[in-house]
Design goal:
Layout (H helix, E strand, L loop, with lengths): L4 H7 L4 E5 L3 E3 L2 E3 L3 E3 L2 E3 L2 E9 L6 H10 L3 E4 L6 E5 L5 E2 L11 H4 E5 L1 H10 L4 E5 L14 E6 L2 H10 L9 H20 L3 E4 L4 H12 L7
Parallel strand pairs: 6-11, 6-12, 7-11, 12-13
Antiparallel strand pairs: 1-4, 2-3, 5-6, 8-9, 8-10
């Protein structure tokens, strides 16, 4: 994680929430050695870019809506076009209608990738306020240093299966092959992100409690209050 220059100059120090990371591959993502530093309260204001991640079905998009309702600048990699599907062989962008009708080899042939310039824009915005970005991407390592803190949402496998089967806003994970991949990631994600120094939040709570816990880890108050 970066040492946010504005945080340091305003407060004079930063609060570290993690040791240095070790290069570990999660799924197909190799995370580089970086230190996570939290957003920092400067007088009465919290600033910094917060990455809220977790496997598909943990409620990232729902959390984003709740944060927006509370007055925070919050963005979603899926809904805000900050991530796209690309061919692994060529890197070419691929249109996905979102109907879930993927061939069995879809994840072998395509990767869900984030747009670094868009994240850089959010990082600049986060010099003056706290900004949330919610999502999960394969090339997380390419933007890792832009985040001030990482929040990882986790669920037990039974609850995750129920959510994936019942949701209507996103078809990803309903195909057997995609479900197997998601469940495989889910078995290792908590330990993996704890090893990165991320804050792990149990998403099997009421939505308001999940968001309250996220904000408590930042020392943040709602801008609407």
């Amino acid at each position: 994680m970066k040492q946010h220059p504005l945080l340091v100059t305003r407060l004079g120090h930063r609060r570290s929430v993690a040791p240095r990371l070790h290069g570990v591959r999660y799924g197909r993502r190799a995370i580089p050695n970086r230190a996570i530093t939290s957003s920092v309260r400067c007088e009465t204001k919290t600033v910094g870019l917060v990455w809220i991640t977790g496997v598909s079905g943990t409620g990232k998009s729902t959390v984003r809506v709740e944060l927006a309702t509370r007055g925070y600048q919050s963005f979603d990699t899926d809904e805000d076009g900050i991530a796209v599907w690309r061919r692994r062989t060529t890197g070419a962008e691929v249109y996905d209608p979102g109907d879930g009708n993927h061939p069995d080899t879809w994840l072998q042939d395509h990767c869900w990738t984030i747009n670094r310039p868009r994240v850089e824009q959010l990082a600049r915005m986060a010099r003056d306020e706290v900004v949330f970005l919610c999502g999960s991407v394969e090339n997380e390592d390419e933007v890792w240093e832009l985040f001030d803190i990482v929040i990882c949402l986790v669920l037990d496998e039974s609850t995750l299966r129920e959510r994936l089967a019942g949701r209507t806003t996103n078809q990803f994970g309903k195909a057997p092959g995609e479900l197997d991949v998601i469940l495989g990631w889910n078995r290792t994600i908590e330990a993996t992100y704890q090893g990165f120094g991320a804050v792990v939040v149990n998403a099997d709570q009421a939505l308001t409690d999940v968001v309250d816990e996220i904000l408590a880890n930042l020392g943040a108050e709602s801008p609407n209050t």
